[in-house]
């Protein structure tokens, strides 16, 4: 369970960093960074949702 908590934290930090890069890219008109940050953030969000569903399933099975 500790590994999953760490992985969740890494995904959250990755999403925040991608959002910062996305904002920076928009302000500096560097749209290649905007596209890359949006893609990576979307991947992190999908992986985070999968992880949360897996953890929720583990918790429900214990009850």
TrEMBL record:
Superkingdom of origin: Bacteria
Ranges annotated as spanning the membrane: 7-27, 33-52
Pfam family, one: DUF6358
Keyword vocabulary terms for this entry: Membrane, Transmembrane, Transmembrane helix
InterPro entries: DUF6358
Protein name: Uncharacterized protein
Species the sequence originates in: Mucilaginibacter polytrichastri
